[in-house]
Q: What sequence folds into this?
């Protein structure tokens, strides 16, 4: 009996040592240097690709990674970033939920010597942002505007075209830049009466979609169809700032029993559903922002900063966050239509033919 008790005591001692060892390992892991990545939401799928690519590239460079999606909740994002600062993050990569909500947490990071990189969405109203990496958001909008201009022959046809306009989230600085981009192309035609906005809703405040919420875009499109398009009024084009909202507008058209000629619809992000819609002639175009390139360039920026080098910058004039002009690296977006889906999307390996229903 004493022998059994001795064996049991020995086993308890061994288990205690194992547990202590595990605790030490967990503490070491928790307190080890890492790069914290905070993304706004896990939907649409482009943000999943962003997260996966950022994590993969950082690990390849030898960095530990702490990645979280904030579910469009600014308090959750702030809490995550404060904890990352407390836990010893070496750098913060942030795509803000709300552009102007991160001043205090960025200042905390700055006070501890932690560099902050604003990723795709621009952090506003704080000097504590070191760099910004994104796509040329004005160019994104311009590509949409040029596409509509070309498809409807606005520069040459004498006919009036009828259009509605949507914009992104007012809390996202990129949304206004995209809006300004397509309006710079379309506004001159509106002033000449060549483009008629039937609802007369064209100011950013009138057409913005809080939190990029598709249900709000669909609800607004339902209202527009009911109020302005019940008696055969033609609708030639709908400017949508991203694919999520474009698909919501398409759903509204389908559910309303819209019987007129299907309008030209724009989008952004090259979501799978958008590519499928383009191939099925429900959406005219999307602006492809290859997030693989964005993530790779962001990690190169992190690596340079943490090694004491100056990262690659190609814009030091455009991005003023109300406190400073933030040195930026801009990536060129690409317009995708039915004619170049194979070349731009499939051949680049972004999606397979199976992904988009071509096989």
A:
């Amino acid at each position: 009996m004493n022998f059994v008790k001795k064996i049991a005591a020995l086993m308890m001692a061994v288990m205690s040592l194992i547990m202590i060892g595990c605790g030490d390992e967990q503490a070491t892991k928790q307190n080890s240097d890492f790069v914290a990545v905070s993304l706004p939401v896990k939907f649409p799928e482009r943000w999943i690709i962003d997260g996966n690519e950022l994590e993969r590239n950082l690990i390849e460079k030898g960095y530990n990674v702490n990645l979280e999606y904030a579910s469009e909740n600014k308090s959750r994002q702030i809490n995550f970033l404060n904890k990352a600062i407390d836990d010893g993050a070496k750098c913060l990569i942030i795509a803000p939920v709300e552009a102007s909500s991160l001043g205090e947490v960025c200042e905390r990071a700055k006070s501890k010597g932690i560099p902050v990189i604003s990723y795709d969405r621009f952090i506003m109203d704080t000097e504590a942002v070191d760099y910004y990496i994104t796509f040329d958001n004005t160019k994104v909008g311009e590509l949409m505007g040029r596409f509509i201009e070309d498809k409807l022959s606005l520069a040459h046809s004498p006919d009036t075209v009828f259009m509605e306009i949507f914009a992104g989230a007012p809390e996202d600085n990129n949304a206004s830049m995209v809006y300004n981009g397509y309006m710079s192309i379309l506004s001159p035609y509106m002033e000449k009466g060549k483009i008629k906005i039937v609802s007369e809703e064209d100011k950013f405040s009138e057409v913005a979609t809080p939190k990029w919420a598709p249900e709000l875009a669909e609800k607004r499109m339902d209202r527009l169809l009911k109020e302005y398009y019940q008696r055969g009024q033609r609708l030639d084009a709908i400017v949508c700032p991203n694919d999520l909202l474009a698909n919501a507008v398409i759903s509204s058209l389908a559910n309303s029993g819209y019987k007129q000629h299907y309008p030209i619809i724009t989008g952004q992000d090259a979501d799978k559903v958008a590519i499928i819609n383009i191939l099925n002639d429900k959406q005219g175009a999307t602006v492809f922002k290859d997030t693989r390139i964005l993530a790779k360039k962001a990690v190169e920026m992190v690596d340079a900063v943490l090694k004491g080098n100056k990262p690659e910058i190609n814009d030091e004039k455009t991005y003023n966050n109300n406190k400073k002009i933030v040195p930026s690296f801009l990536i060129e977006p690409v317009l995708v239509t039915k004619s170049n889906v194979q070349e731009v999307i499939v051949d680049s390996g972004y999606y397979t033919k199976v992904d988009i229903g071509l096989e």
